[in-house]
Amino acid sequence: MLWSDPENEPPKELRDTQDMLRRLGVLVALAMVLAMLVLGMR
Fold this sequence. Notes:
By secondary structure, this protein is mainly α. It is built from one helix and no strands.
């Protein structure tokens, strides 16, 4: 890749959306684990 090539980065809105979705996925996974632990303790 040459220094003169344009950067192949997605626009800021897309990057923000991807970050939000990634965080949401982590939160959903943690919630599932927590729910399994709570249900398993009964």
